[in-house]
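Record pair follows.
FIRST:
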Amino acid sequence: MNHLVKKDYKDFFAEWISLVANAPLVAIPIFVLINYVLLDGSDFIFFSIVSVFFAAILPSIISIIWIYHKKVEMDMPNKSDRIYPLLTVILSYIIGTIVLYVLKAPAIVTVLMFCYLFNTVIVLLINFFWKISIHVMGVSGPAPALIYVFGFWGIIFVLVIPMVMWSRFYLKRHTFNQVLVGALLGFSLTTIQIYLILFNHI
């Protein structure tokens, strides 16, 4: 009996983590927090709306429409189900990056949007032959940007990554290698991009 209760609790906890760690959902507080620290008043509100729209709202709308139209599971378990949503989400990130750059958003905000774009392109390419974890990349990718802005406090966000890895593996949505590579690739790609663009002014 205790074993069943413990399993039910773990199932609920894993499902809950998986739900809140959805990449577009994670992007909302990340962009809002970064804009809050770097901007004041109307600029904070304006750039938060713009960045959240292109990083979270539009990608979510696209994915929901696709899921409803094709009648697939929310997690899109088949690699083929991911291709069209990823392509359209990439388009959203392209427009978002251009808009933020033209409107002179804080550099790290524009760069982070570009990281979402570049990282998603990599996910799309990998997706043709392997189902890397988008959930894990969705939390590991923004982590370097939070560290860049918040320093030590940004490192705390890194603690979320193992929880999401466990959730996706426990729910059998991915293999251990798929969640591990998702974590390493998301973190390293964003770190490299921030270093090359912001520190070397390329």
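SECOND:
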Amino acid sequence: MSVRALWFERGRLFLLDQRRLPSRVVVQGYTQVEHVAEAIRSMVVRGAPSIGVAAAYGMALASRQAGWTSARAARLLGSTRPTANDLFVGIDAVRSAWDHGRDPLEAASEYRDIVVGECHRIGEAGAPLFRTRERVLTHCNAGALATVEWGTALAPLRVAHDRGSPIFVWVDETRPLLQGSRLTAWELEQEGIPHAVIADNAAGHFMRRGEVDAVIVGADRIARNGDFANKVGTYEKAVLARENGIPFYVAAPFSTFDPASADGTAIPVEERSEEELRRMGGSELMPRKSRARNPAFDVTPSRFVTSFITPTGLASPRGLGQVFRARVRATEARSAARGSARARTGRRSTRRSD
């Protein structure tokens, strides 16, 4: 893996500025939680798992700043991108450690390792699906940039490509910020995976011509019934895939599954500034008096999903109960491991004091 979205070293969180790609590779360093929050809000860093990890490190930075409490830092970071469930999972992982006297930076790094490990397992679990389904369409960017490393939707394609499958990827441009043409295409180029960028509204054309074998996307939040939020335009691709008899896969780590949302109606949908639609590269794209609406996400009903690709394998929408139970078990196991580590630390401290 040659692509990293973020990393922490020498007391700083480093973010690869995704707004500048592909024309420039710019890395920004952060030492204050306020600046991390703005980086998340302004999409220097984006993609639900990467947002969650960035927020976790933002919490760790806040713990080192005067005047910050865990609650205050959590409120600030939680206000940045409300649709992404991973954001709140990352915040809570560090807030719990902070409130219980553990090192917040250690907790943030643990959370980062969990996300990377789960995405790697998603790649292993999903790769066999693409031995014969070689022409794959994806929407937005759900690669390493969106997930720290590996990716969700791109992870199975990377693994399949590495194993010799002749993968070809149709890349939706993904208006208005072009995460597909700017970011997904850039990642695929780095990996040497053949691909072609298409306009968002060309997907149906290629599906109807029989040139798409499968669709795979990531997710920002998945409800208990399997309804899920992803970059706006995903719902259209799911409907088109159903109409054309094409399997539709959703790849996500456990942090994206939200047990508090019963179905898609409970998922908050972020609406961003109309300025993202009004201008591109300094050029006006519409009359000045025209108004615009800019939802960042849409919600796709579970009936359009063929399978979810998770760290523990494939799951149908009706089988998500098992995935949510696995998520709870993974959380409990991490908590138990942290408790054991605290106990060992306590015993060592006692021996030293004796």
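COMMENT: DSSP finds twelve helices and 15 strands in the chain.
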